[in-house]
């Protein structure tokens, strides 16, 4: 009975975090529209926008598996966590692109961190002789998306 109450409370907390993250995203989007801001503020906005999916995915990880270490998860649990992480991250990247923001090194470092997490899990899966086909497909897709972001950034730099 107590476990059910804990799950309900945890889901309410996640819902509150999602609402708060959406509110922060709206505030940041409004601030991004104002192009007269300082470059430091723009970098902070990008950090906040990219941190929201990371925080949400780690909260989900803690609620579902009671850990903050995604590497120790088994196949399907890690894949769910990883998909939440990369879909949220690339959604935030597309939001930045739709707001006419350039892809900065901050965005690239976040993408590289997520990619390295997948590579670590891929190596661990291979060493443990587990099936890693879905993770390989996700990593290939992630490489393609990172290349698309980088190529669009190069195009924008050439136009300017």
Structural features:
mainly alpha, 160 residues
- Mean pLDDT equals 77
Major beta sheet summary: none
Radius of gyration over C-alpha positions, nearest whole angstrom = 18 Å
Strand content: under 5%
Summing up helix and strand content along with how strands pair, one would put the structural category as mainly alpha
**What is the distance, rounded to the nearest whole angstrom, between the alpha carbons of the first and last residues?**
62 Å
**Helix proportion of residues, in percent?**
over 70%
SSE order in H/E notation? HHHHH
**What gross morphology would you assign?**
globular
Tally of helical segments = 5
Number of strands: 0
Unreliable residue stretches: none
Give the structure's gist in a few sentences.
This protein is mostly helical and 160 residues long. It has helices spanning 2-33, 39-65, 75-98, 105-127, 133-159.
């Amino acid at each position: 009975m107590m476990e059910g109450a804990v799950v309900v409370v945890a889901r309410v907390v996640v819902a509150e975090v999602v609402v708060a993250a959406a509110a922060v995203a709206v505030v940041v989007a409004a601030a991004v529209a104002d192009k007269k801001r300082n470059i430091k503020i723009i970098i902070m906005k990008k950090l906040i926008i990219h941190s929201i999916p990371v925080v949400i995915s780690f909260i989900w990880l803690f609620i579902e598996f009671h850990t903050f270490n995604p590497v120790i998860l088994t196949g399907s649990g890690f894949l769910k966590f990883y998909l939440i992480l990369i879909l949220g991250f690339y959604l935030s990247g597309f939001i930045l692109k739709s707001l006419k923001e350039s892809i900065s090194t901050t965005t690239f470092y976040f993408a590289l961190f997520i990619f390295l997490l997948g590579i670590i899990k891929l190596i661990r899966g291979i060493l443990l002789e587990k099936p890693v086909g879905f993770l390989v497909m996700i990593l290939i897709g992630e490489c393609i998306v990172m290349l698309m972001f980088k190529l669009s950034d190069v195009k924008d730099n050439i136009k300017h």
